[in-house]
Amino acid sequence: MISSALEKAYRRYADKRPNSATQNALARAVLPSGVTRSVLDFDPFPFTVAFASGCRLTDVDGHEYLDYLGDYSVGIAGHNNPVVRDAVAGVLDSGWSFGAVAADEYNVARLLCERFASMDLVRFTSSGTEANLVALSLALKSAARGKVLAFDGGYHGGCLSFSRDGSSLNVPFDAVVCEYNDLDSVATAFDRWPDQIGCVLVEPMLGSGGRIQGTPAFVRGLRELCDRHGALLIFDEVQTSRMAYGGAQSLFGVHPDLTTLGKYIGGGLNFGAVGGSRDVMRLLVRGREPHFDHSGTFNNNRFTMAAAAAMLSTVLTEENLGVLFERGEGLRKRADDVLRAAGFQATGWGSLLNVHPTDVPVTRAADLAGTDRRLTQLLFHEMLDRGVYIGKSGFVTLSLPQAPETDDIFVAALEDSLRAIPAGPHHSNRSTWGS
Q1: 110-128 confidence digits (pLDDT tens)
Q2: 37-75 burial by CB neighbour count: b if 16+ within 10 A, else e?
Q3: CATH of the domain at 406
Q4: How far is it, in rounded angstroms, from Cα 350 to Cα 241?
Q5: Range of the domain at 99
Q6: Cβ–Cβ < 8 Å for 430, 424
């Protein structure tokens, strides 16, 4: 039943998008699957965007979508934001590739250090992936140890995925993988490798692993275990820094040794940063011993620095982030009420949420094992057919141009989409439904 419903959805989708089909066929001749990001590849083919503004996308076949994906949390300011646009345009007058220092990078670093109490010094990279690579390398050098402790379902960039399915290309760090929200598994790992674990890398909310919030006891317990065993604590706040003016760490009241940032701070341009305590970051200070070189041609890209300065000073205000957080909390509750009636649920935190085809409690990535992802794919296509764009995995991201009125449209589309999905008994796991 589910398979036939999906095939019907694929045919309906393809029939409405001949121009996107042609574009994808051309792209497949020179790009694997016709895309540059695996997350954008879905059946029968991805649509091609021609124009974007605010919280709306228009594809090459003329279909308009209400955007509730926001480029996987990059698009917090919305598409073609005028503040970011003006900042980027201003760079054109003075040049953009100096191979030298420009003032904007100081401004961005100052604004970040003022926001994040745990940051004494900060260094830029081209992406969140690079920021996490630098943070891990710095932490292991600082601790003079070789092992990284990470979590099942943890995603820290294009080459730093710690999911146990082994389906991602990874940099070969010597990693110990523990269960998220399970302090006992972390304590056991430290007991087994007492002088080898140099750092703990954690997302305050498991992101690509399902938008699963870390409990306060878990997050604070990690700080205590790291202090007890002489390891560094790294917060990957590439996604969760949007939760508050000072990031998720300010809500938990925990100071990590290093914090990584990325995605939305660049206003849609490439951005990454790693910041932390002076004791650790001084390893990058030239003239100190020991010190280590860290380079990157585009670390101080002038377009990115101008956009980030505008975002931090004008767009990402404490008020805006607070309103976005509260609207997200409300939308997730509304969505969860609708989803539970159909055997689904919504997890998440603040302005990030994820739809899952199961009604069992979800506190770690393993709780999602065995769910029938075809149901999520079908929901994705049903939402698209109703003009609402979410992630193919059920990921939903709020942005500032959205409003209570667009949230109403989202919920209505969700309710209507669920009616089109094959129904069945409310088991704790719907993976047995259909054929």
Answers
A1: 999 999 999 999 999 999 9
A2: eeeebbeebbbbeeebebbbbebbbebebbbbbbbbbbb
A3: 3.90.1150.10
A4: 11
A5: 82-315
A6: yes
